[in-house]
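Example record

One chain of 234 residues, shown exactly as stored in the release files.
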Amino acid sequence: MYKRIVLKLSGEALAGTRGFGLEADKVAEIAGELAEVHALGVQIGIVVGGGNIFRGVAAQAKEMDRVSADSMGMLATVINALALQDALEKRGVQCRVMSAVLMNQLAEPYIRRRAVRHLEKGRIVIFAAGTGNPYFSTDTAASLRAMEIKADVLLKGTKVEGIYNADPVLVKDAVKYEEISYMEILKQGLKVMDLTAVSLCKDNDLPMIVFNMNHSGNIKRVVMGEKVGSLVTA
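Predicted structure tokens for this chain:
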């Protein structure tokens, strides 16, 4: 169904049941799913968050300067990216970490044409350090990278089944949207992604699928065209 995808992974997805740090089994499980999708011939870019290690807008960063706190958050995404790279390479999948912040000993610098070349050669590319700028979330980084590399779709893995009109964890009779437009998300103020990311996707006509990462095999189902999660279109 999709030849080139960008998957937005939250840092919490790598933390598993612990909720913080890295859970080796969970990282290995996600890497296994990605290896399956990669074997289908799909070109995969991944944008990983850092909330399992440090989040610039979290309570522990309240007294900090926002720029410093966001910089720490960017470094946290690099830690997650290296962990995911290691797990993928153990499965025989060639992988490159590209960082928006220069750190040549750990990762390649993000260069759009080089990233596209890696994808064309069958390597998975993990985009680390967000956009390289404070005040921008990894959601915005995912939207930006997806458009830069001309991805067919942006996949956002969450812990719920899709997009609802209210938080399904708190509201039992929350209604799930099978399909929704970016304008509706903005109108209703749904907290799917931050507003910058939603506006970027809307303005550039990039489809997005929000689905539950906790169900094994869901990434493959989405890529194969099965109706999983919620589809967002312009």
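Notes: Residues 4-233 form a domain with the Carbamate kinase fold (CATH 3.40.1160.10).
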